[in-house]
Specification:
The protein is an alpha/beta fold. The protein has 13 helices and 14 strands. The relative contact order is 0.19.
C-alpha cells in the first residue's frame, strides 16, 4: 500500500483573477480573460491578444528580494503563499527540512532576457543586469518559493514545455511517497507575454487572431497567457494528524513520450499517458467523470486529443464531461497544468464542470461533450487533467474527491 497524497491548499494567479476564489468564479461564469495586451510593449507584433494579469495583488515581498526575481518567479511565490495560507501548514525549524518545492516552467525568465537584449543592443548599455542569471534560470521559481517560505526539503525546477506543471506535481508526489518529504509545494508558472517569446510563436503561425475556441470548428489557434498555479501536497496521515482540511486526493499520474516530432502531436502518446494515469490511480475508464482537456484551440491538437480520449475511454468517452479552461485563462505555458488542477479540484468540490468558452460551431472530429459556453452541474467524483507538450512530453494527473 503506497502513501496517499492529498491536496490541502491551492494558490493561483492569472488573467482571470489574483486568487483561487476569483479564478474559479470567472471559470464558473464562463468569462474569458483574453483580450488586447496592454501591460507590455508589443512593438511591431501582428498578433496582439493574450490573457494578462492587469495588476498584481499586494504581496509584501521585500524590495531586495524582488530585484532578484523575474516575473515568472514572482507569480509562483504569490500563488505558493496563497496555497500555504489555505493549507494552514506552519513551517518551522522542526519541520523545514521535511517540506520542499517543485515548480515547473515552460519558458524561462523571458522578461529579464527581453530587457537585457533591448538594453544592450538598442539602448547601448554597457552591461546586463547584475541579477540576470538568477532571474532567468528555469529553476529560479522553485528556489524563490523555498527562500520565501523557508522550505529546506527537496527543491528543484522542472521544464517540459506545456506539461511542466503536471510533471512538477507528479514529481513532488513522488518525493512524498519516497519518504523524502512530508509536504511539498508544487505547480507551475510562466510569464511569456513579452515581445521575443510572442514573436517566436507568431513565426509558428499557431496563434489565434481573436480568441481561443477549443473544439469549435472555427478555431484558429491558441492564445498565450501568464500565471501560476500551486498546491500544497502532503500525505493523508500528515494532513489528518495536524487537522488540515483536505481539498482532494492526487490519485495518480501518467507520463509518456511521443518520440516522433518536436511540434506535431500524436494519438499514441497522449493515449498512453492517460492509460498510465488510470492504472496508477486504480481507476477504470468508467470511473472518470470529468477530463480537463489540454485543448489548445489548434486544429490538430483538438482533433488528436479527442481521438486519444475515445481510444482510452471507449463508449464511456461520450458520457464524460470534457472542457478546456484555456478558453478562459489562455495557454499559460508551464503554468497551465497548475491552473487546470484548480479547475479539477473546484469542479469536484462544487459539482460543477467549468465550460469551454468561446465555442461557436460543432466539429464532427471533436464530437465529445465539451461543455460549450455554460458550466454544467453534475457530480464530479474523479477528474483527469491532460497536458501534452511540444517534444511529445505528455503528463496526465488524476484527482479524487475526498
Amino acid at each position: 500500500m503506497r502513501r496517499r497524497v492529498v491536496i490541502t491548499g491551492l494558490g493561483g494567479i492569472c488573467g482571470l483573477g489574483v486568487d483561487v476564489d476569483a479564478i474559479w468564479r470567472e471559470m464558473r461564469a464562463g468569462r474569458s480573460a483574453i483580450g488586447e495586451i496592454t501591460t507590455t510593449p508589443l512593438h511591431e507584433l501582428k498578433v496582439r491578444v493574450g490573457a494578462e494579469i492587469k495588476a498584481l495583488p499586494e504581496h509584501g515581498i521585500d524590495r531586495k528580494r524582488l530585484v532578484t526575481m523575474d516575473r515568472f518567479s514572482l507569480l509562483a511565490v504569490i500563488a505558493a503563499g496563497e496555497a500555504i495560507s489555505q493549507s494552514g501548514l506552519t513551517v518551522s525549524e522542526d519541520n523545514e527540512r521535511r517540506v520542499g518545492s517543485v515548480v515547473g516552467t515552460g519558458i524561462f525568465g523571458a522578461r529579464t532576457t527581453e530587457e537585457n537584449y533591448r538594453g544592450l543592443f538598442i539602448e547601448g548599455r554597457g552591461r546586463a543586469d547584475v541579477f540576470s542569471v538568477p532571474r532567468i534560470m528555469p529553476g529560479a521559481p522553485a528556489g524563490q518559493v523555498s527562500m520565501n517560505y523557508r522550505l529546506r526539503g527537496p527543491v528543484f525546477g522542472v521544464t517540459s514545455a506545456c506539461a511542466s506543471a503536471n510533471h512538477a506535481i507528479a514529481l513532488a508526489a513522488d518525493q512524498i511517497r519516497l519518504g523524502r518529504a512530508d509536504a511539498m509545494l508544487a505547480g507551475g508558472t510562466d510569464a511569456p507575454l513579452v515581445y521575443g517569446v510572442l514573436k517566436g510563436w507568431e513565426a509558428l503561425r499557431a496563434l489565434a487572431r481573436e480568441t481561443c475556441r477549443p473544439f469549435s470548428a472555427d478555431r484558429d489557434g491558441l492564445v498565450i497567457g501568464e500565471g501560476a498555479g500551486m498546491a500544497v501536497l502532503e500525505t493523508y496521515e500528515h494532513a489528518t494528524a495536524r487537522g488540515a482540511s483536505i481539498l482532494a486526493e492526487l490519485a495518480g499520474a501518467g507520463m509518456s513520450g511521443d518520440a516522433t516530432d518536436i511540434v506535431a502531436p500524436t494519438v499514441d502518446g497522449p493515449a498512453a499517458a492517460m492509460m498510465a494515469c488510470l492504472a496508477d490511480a486504480g481507476f477504470n475508464p468508467e470511473d472518470v467523470d470529468y477530463v480537463n482537456a489540454h485543448g489548445t484551440g489548434t486544429k490538430a491538437n483538438d482533433q488528436i486529443e479527442t481521438a486519444a480520449i475515445k481510444r482510452v475511454f471507449g463508449d464511456h468517452a461520450y458520457k464524460l464531461s470534457v472542457s478546456s479552461t484555456k478558453s478562459m485563462h489562455a495557454h499559460c505555458m508551464g503554468a497551465s497544468g497548475g491552473l487546470e488542477m484548480i479547475a479539477c479540484v473546484m469542479a469536484m468540490r462544487d459539482g460543477l464542470v467549468p465550460p469551454t468558452a468561446n465555442y461557436r460551431e460543432p466539429d464532427p472530429e471533436c464530437d465529445l461533450d465539451v461543455t460549450p459556453n455554460v458550466a454544467r452541474e453534475r457530480p464530479v467524483r474523479t477528474a483527469l487533467s491532460n497536458a501534452f507538450a511540444f517534444g511529445g512530453t505528455n503528463a496526465v494527473l488524476a484527482f479524487r474527491a475526498v
